[in-house]
Design brief:
Blueprint lengths: L5 E3 L5 H16 L4 E2 L23 E4 L7 H21 L9 E4 L21 E5 L13 E4 L8 E4 L6 E5 L6
Helix pairs in contact: 1-2
């Protein structure tokens, strides 16, 4: 629903989504993906976090704008356009962005959380762009946004279909 989030299908062309998915898989194959953690002592890839598979089981790689593929450049350019548009439309004061790949192995979880830290309001908007090729409902992996704080209902699920982007307020929506 628009009052909760913005969902953009076909955020990038299919060939770019495929190239980004290949980039992530290659990073995983060469050991450049790291276990993700929770908590923070900094921002983005400069933060220290605790890894605990019972809370969060994905592997991530922060994008470094100085060493990226053409597909990653296209993605970051589109995200910059989105940042500028959000500032112009909603006066959010977004001055920077951070981006990473995340790979969730089968059965991996990420327990309910907010993306904005309690003592740090830097993260205003969270965006998730799905790179899944040939996703089927039985594969699972839907993103659930809780519409009433930490309460289990009501909620809204987004299917992780390649090319779909969902954006939501980082400090408001538990997911």
């Amino acid at each position: 629903p628009a009052s909760v989030s913005v969902i953009i299908e076909h955020f990038l062309p299919p060939e770019t989504i495929e190239a980004l998915g290949s980039d992530a898989k290659k990073l995983q194959e060469i050991g450049e993906m790291r276990r993700a953690g929770t908590g923070q002592t900094g921002i983005g890839h400069n933060s220290a976090a605790t890894a605990d598979d019972s809370i969060r089981g994905d592997f991530i790689h922060w994008l470094d704008e100085t060493a990226i593929s053409p597909a990653q450049q296209q993605y970051l350019q589109r995200m910059e356009e989105l940042r500028v548009s959000l500032n112009q439309s909603f006066f959010l004061g977004l001055f920077e962005r951070e981006s990473h790949f995340a790979i969730y192995p089968p059965g991996a979880v990420y327990k309910k959380h907010l993306d904005q830290f309690q003592d740090n309001s830097h993260r205003q908007v969270s965006c998730v762009l799905y790179l899944n090729q040939h996703w089927q409902h039985e594969d699972g992996g839907q993103l659930r946004l809780y519409l009433d704080g930490e309460n289990p209902t009501p909620y809204f699920d987004t299917e992780p279909i390649g090319g779909t982007m969902i954006a939501f307020l980082s400090g408001r929506f538990w997911h």
